[in-house]
Design a protein that fits this description.
767 residues; Beta-lactamase; Lipocalin; 4 domains; 8-stranded antiparallel β-barrel; 19 helices; 24% helix; 26% strand
Length: 767
């Protein structure tokens, strides 16, 4: 009978008119933010009043997402670790205010003079002053070390802040909480929490371990970068499992929510005492009248004057928002399978809570504020730099949208239209309103910015930073060191940009306030040539990544098959058949345009396959494209630059050779011969800039035909000067009807490419 009752209470309630607006809004967000899967559950005391899944749990198998789809819930895991601890506190087995070292030997961070020793209360309220990540078993570490090894790697490291004095969110801290539990009960953390917390809650489909049952219903997750690369999320377990390794579904997290609303009861058992929950919902290390901040595990805030408790979660490819109004007994859980989408699902969560609150109070549901794309003509007008004293905002157009960055190091954020204003509305950020009185003025946060009168080429980055700029770490989580506006910056965890403060030649500080790593440092190790081989960022070691072509040499690969054989097969093959009313090919030799220079790599062995593909150093484009290129050349000459052509029209058989010779992992850089390329149609050109005074090619963020992230048209690394030159080339070409290929800054397609057939004539046949 009890099982049947629970099934009734926690089944997905049918959609009603009350939630149609929310449903429509979520569908919009799933489409706009390209969320592979999203699940949501709304809880009113002991019932799920509405739940639904969107997208696909497994797109390849067409398995739809449901409220029972399993996700990695990231830092929401911390709440269950803290609940397990509080159960032991209730039993008198732990004291929140006793020194942690009293529960096991060997934990010895480096305290400053007169600093307090760390307690469980400090750890659970993020007031321990510990580093964010341990050196071993951190968020970046794929080696899956034990919890003990991860925690003991903290030994000997100084606290970032004196314990108890300042908020410092720390995964290391909650890892330590879990280790205290493990030592106190004499049992491994994961099975203990399963047996004493998850199972009594009825969360038998949830786990801190990737069991077969969990993996069966686990959503596929996606990582993304600012420059546009996407890849499947890594699946390794963190060394600090108590801080972020739990798997669950929204339906199961709803059971936890109802338990809290029931004063700690679930399935007839008292999981926590009501007074324990009240303490966990009380701000710690706070003044008498403070209502917000961290409680014991829970983040405390307000929504429309009502007490709100919650926690977010972010782990590779997943984002979670758990929120509740405890006095009204209303809760919402939203999870999705796209990396760092917390702003998006947090917005959904807030709108859902407002909707439920209005229904509970018998009021009309509040309208959900929508945004819309900025009109294309306005996007072009807005792009540029805006200044106010020593502050600046850069608005950059990319693929028809406008993105904002600024001097404070904040991330690249997309803008959309809301009423007469613009508003930040991106997958990872939402809410800042930008007033636009006219195309030359912006108003943000009480500050008026005016369009810069000129956009001069930035100076070279300081020589002392040349050996530091580059990429470090892993494929799944790369750390970037780059220069922007005369300051050294870092991009960490794919989305956080921080302006660094130079303390010495090899030591830089993260910002003192704001960001994930405030108060911590980066320490570089250089070789005898002054080039950094490693950076220890916030106590996590990142080795410099090996990037072929980074030192100026031509990027090369080993062909998959002998090129002579590939050439023979390609010449014998035929291009794909096409149907359509195509224009007659009218290829023009680009040598006719004054000022254009040539470096036709495929007529030499200086290319990625180290072989000659062309018998003459020629470049051709269809006449309209060629004439557009000529106009771009004239405009660039006004800035002191000319076009250096690497390739234009390319016979189809060469495209086939490229594809057949290239490993699959690089196929995004070589066209599929089964579809034909825009080069084959005579409407694509590979090119760069050269300095008219010196005749030398300019330095771009990557080399030509470099198969790396540095090649992406929106790659954020390198120097301001390199990116400025890359963007100058892009603007000149786009103004004349070309579009850059997202993954190759040097590759531009002319707007009419669809009107021309695939060509396979050699250069000799064109003469």
């Amino acid at each position: 009978m009890r099982t049947a009752l629970l099934t009734l209470l926690f089944c997905a309630a049918p959609a009603s008119a009350q939630y149609e607006g929310l449903d429509e809004f979520i569908l919009e967000q799933v489409a706009d933010k390209r969320l592979p899967a999203l699940s949501i559950a709304l809880v009113d005391d002991q019932k799920i009043v509405w739940s639904k899944g969107y997208g696909h749990q497994d797109a390849a198998k067409k398995i739809p997402a449901t409220p029972d789809t399993v996700y990695r819930v990231g830092s929401v895991s911390k709440l269950f670790t803290d609940v397990a601890i509080m159960r032991l506190v209730e039993q008198g087995k732990l004291d929140l205010d006793a020194p942690v070292k009293s529960y096991f030997e060997g934990f010895s961070p480096k305290y400053g003079p007169n600093e307090k020793t760390i307690t469980l209360r400090m750890l659970m309220a993020h007031r321990s002053g510990l580093i964010r990540e341990p050196p071993v078993g951190n968020y970046f570490d794929p080696d899956e070390p034990t919890l003990m090894k991860s925690i003991f790697s903290i030994n000997g490291l100084p606290t970032v802040y004196p314990p108890g004095e300042r908020l410092k969110y720390s995964n290391a801290a909650i890892g330590l909480v879990g280790y205290v539990l493990q030592k106190r009960v004499g049992e491994k953390f994961e099975p203990y929490v399963q047996r004493t917390v998850l199972d009594p809650l009825g969360m038998t489909g949830s786990s801190f371990e990737p069991t077969p049952a969990v993996k069966k219903n686990l959503a596929d997750a996606v990582m993304w970068s600012y420059h546009g690369r996407e890849f499947p999320a890594p699946t390794f377990e963190l060394g600090t499992a108590p801080a972020g390794c739990m798997y669950s579904s929204v339906n199961e997290l709803a059971k936890f929510t109802s338990c809290l609303f029931a004063g700690g009861k679930a399935n007839g058992k008292q999981i926590l005492k009501p007074e324990t929950i009240r303490e966990m919902f009380t701000p710690q290390f706070a003044g008498k009248d403070e209502r917000t901040g961290f409680g014991l595990g829970f983040f405390l805030s307000e929504l429309d004057g009502k007490k709100r408790v919650g926690h977010g979660g972010a782990i590779y490819g997943f984002a979670t928002d758990w929120a509740a109004l405890p006095e009204e007994k209303l809760g919402v859980i939203v999870v999705c399978s796209r990396d760092v989408a917390n702003a998006t699902i947090g917005r959904i969560s807030e709108e859902a809570l407002k909707l439920m609150l209005a229904a509970k109070e018998g009021k009309e549901p509040p309208p959900i504020a929508r945004t819309s794309p900025i009109p294309a003509n306005f996007v072009k007008l807005l792009a540029g730099k805006f200044e106010s004293a020593d502050r600046w905002i850069q608005l950059t157009e990319s693929n028809g949208a406008i993105f904002l960055t600024n001097d404070r190091g904040f991330a690249k954020m997309r803008l959309r239209k809301q009423g007469s204003n613009l508003i930040i509305d991106d997958i990872h950020a939402f809410g800042t309103v930008i007033g636009v009185p006219d195309e030359n003025t912006l108003r943000v946060g009480g500050i008026t910015y005016t369009r810069a009168k000129s956009d001069p080429i930035p100076p070279e980055a300081p020589d002392k930073w040349a050996g530091l700029i580059g990429e470090y770490g892993w494929d799944h989580n790369t750390l970037y060191i780059f220069e922007r506006a005369g300051k050294l910056c870092t991009l960490i965890e794919w989305t956080e940009i921080d302006v660094l403060t130079e303390e010495s030649e090899n030591v830089f500080a993260f910002p003192k306030a704001g960001g994930m790593y405030h108060g911590e440092r980066l320490i570089f190790t250089r070789d005898t040539n002054g080039r950094a081989t490693k950076v220890v960022a916030a106590n996590v070691p990142f080795l410099r990544r090996k990037i072929d072509g980074e030192s100026g040499e031509t990027f090369k690969i080993e062909p998959q098959h002998p090129l002579d054989r590939l050439r023979k097969l390609a010449l014998e093959a035929k291009p794909p058949a096409e149907n359509g009313d195509f224009l007659k090919s009218d290829l023009v030799d680009l040598a006719k345009f004054e000022g254009v220079k040539f470096d036709i790599r495929y007529a030499t062995e200086n290319n990625f396959l180290s072989t000659k593909f062309y018998t003459s150093e020629k470049a051709y484009l269809q006449r309209p494209a060629a004439e557009a290129l000529g106009r771009a050349q004239k405009k660039l000459a006004e800035h002191g630059y000319g076009l250096l052509i690497h390739d234009g029209y390319r016979p189809w058989f060469v495209t086939k050779m490229f594809r057949d010779a290239t490993p699959a992992k690089f196929h995004n850089f070589v066209a599929d011969p089964l579809k034909g390329s825009r080069h084959n149609r005579g409407c694509a050109v590979d090119l760069t800039l050269y300095d008219l005074k010196t005749g030398k090619p300019v330095e771009m963020p990557s080399g030509y035909d470099e198969f790396s992230d540095r090649a992406f048209a929106d790659y954020p690394g390198g120097t301001s000067r390199q990116r400025w030159l890359r963007d100058l080339l892009r603007r000149a070409m786009e103004d004349e009807g070309f579009t850059v290929y997202d993954e190759e800054w040097w590759h531009f397609d002319y707007k009419d490419w669809k009107k021309y057939p695939i060509g396979n004539r050699t250069f000799e046949e064109l003469k």
